[in-house]
């Protein structure tokens, strides 16, 4: 039998001598408005035609934006920046984080860059940048370049969505690749140096470390949670690393889907397991298994629902009778099979949960869950 090791803190690169480290302004001003101010400050060096590292980095970022947009809009001719003048940088115009306008010195063409700045959050409304673009078209002419600048983690699904919407996406990897070759230059400017240091410690390093987070067979879920709770690891990456490990041998047996659910004051991360046959209109039932993390505890539950979901109060007549009959029949079959560490629940949707989930060494848990979930699947398949 594997034994659970005592919980201890993971070592990180931030275990530095804090007493010799100068305070960083960006550690105290962490909102997106602070990042808006930094980007405005950075691009202002182009408008004022200053010299030094901030001006050079602003031009490099501008070139990256224009190059990415050119790959999106093949009709866009890459401009010679010497032919354009930056006229103004507006903050929060029509709720746009940054609106940067360039006017041509040799013609009447304008270039507008709408820059929506994100830290970890998503868009505040559906197709936010498209909405801003339409608003700007009502007031201005010229080329409009919509840019999403995000220092936090973005999933591949998010990035695919931005690409399909023809948005210029500047993510944490783009930022690192653009800025990192010039780290020595940042010593010239305390603001640039401080921002870069904060970006690496708060975003880039935790994201990269989370991707390589070790899952050890003898560690329990409780210990794992204790080890990471004070780290800045993106929860989405942590959950993916964990579920990739726990369920790696079940992809051929189940349809799987990770998703995020906003709970009361916190986010729940779900990993759903099901089968195409686990939804029956005739029996008025659908069945899913969920591995769930609400960042405080883990759970593995078996849930049923009416074929077309309705809250219990609105489920009436034949719909109610057929669902309850199907649900109770599945519960009875599971009870007869006495599957492993599973305990029955008498709830509207949740009909069973896995006991001892968080205290079992993960290597042992993984093996037991694979066996138990396959057995549960056979029971459900027989009924459906």
From TrEMBL:
It holds the Pfam family PDDEXK_4. InterPro entries: PDDEXK_4. It comes from the Bacteria. This is PD-(D/E)XK nuclease family protein.
């Amino acid at each position: 039998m594997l034994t659970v090791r005592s919980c201890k803190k993971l070592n990180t690169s931030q275990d530095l001598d804090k007493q010799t480290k100068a305070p960083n302004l960006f550690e105290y001003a962490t909102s997106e408005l602070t990042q808006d101010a930094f980007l405005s400050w950075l691009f202002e060096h182009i408008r004022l035609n200053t010299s030094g590292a901030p001006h050079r980095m602003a031009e490099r970022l501008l070139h990256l934006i224009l190059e990415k947009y050119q790959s999106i809009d093949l009709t866009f001719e890459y401009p010679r920046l010497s032919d354009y003048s930056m006229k103004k940088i507006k903050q929060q115009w029509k709720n746009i984080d940054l609106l940067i306008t360039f006017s041509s010195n040799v013609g009447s063409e304008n270039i507008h860059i709408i820059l929506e700045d994100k830290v970890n959050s998503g868009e505040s409304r559906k197709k936010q940048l498209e909405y801003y673009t339409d608003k700007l078209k009502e007031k201005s002419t010229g080329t409009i370049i919509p840019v999403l600048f995000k220092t936090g983690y973005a999933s591949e699904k998010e990035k695919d969505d931005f690409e399909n919407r023809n948005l210029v996406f500047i993510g944490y990897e783009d930022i690192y690749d653009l800025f990192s070759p010039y780290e020595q230059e940042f010593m010239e400017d305390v603001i640039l140096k401080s921002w870069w240091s904060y970006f690496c410690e708060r975003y880039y390093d935790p994201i990269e470390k989370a991707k390589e987070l070790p899952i050890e067979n003898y560690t329990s879920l409780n210990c794992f949670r204790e080890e990471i709770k004070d780290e800045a690891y993106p929860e989405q990456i942590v959950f993916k690393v964990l579920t990739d490990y726990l369920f790696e041998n079940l992809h051929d047996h189940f349809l799987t889907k990770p998703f995020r659910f906003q709970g009361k004051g916190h986010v729940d991360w779900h990993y759903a397991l099901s089968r195409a046959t686990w939804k029956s209109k005739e029996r008025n039932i659908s069945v899913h298994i969920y591995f769930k993390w609400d960042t405080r505890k883990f759970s593995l539950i078996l849930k049923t629902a009416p074929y077309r979901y309705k809250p219990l109060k609105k489920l009436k007549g034949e719909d109610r009778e057929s669902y309850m009959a199907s649900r109770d029949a599945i519960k009875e079959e599971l009870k007869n099979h006495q599957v492993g560490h599973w305990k029955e629940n008498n709830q509207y949707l949740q009909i069973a949960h896995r006991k001892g989930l968080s205290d079992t060494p993960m290597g042992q848990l993984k093996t037991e869950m694979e066996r138990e979930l396959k057995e549960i699947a056979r029971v459900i398949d027989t009924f459906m």
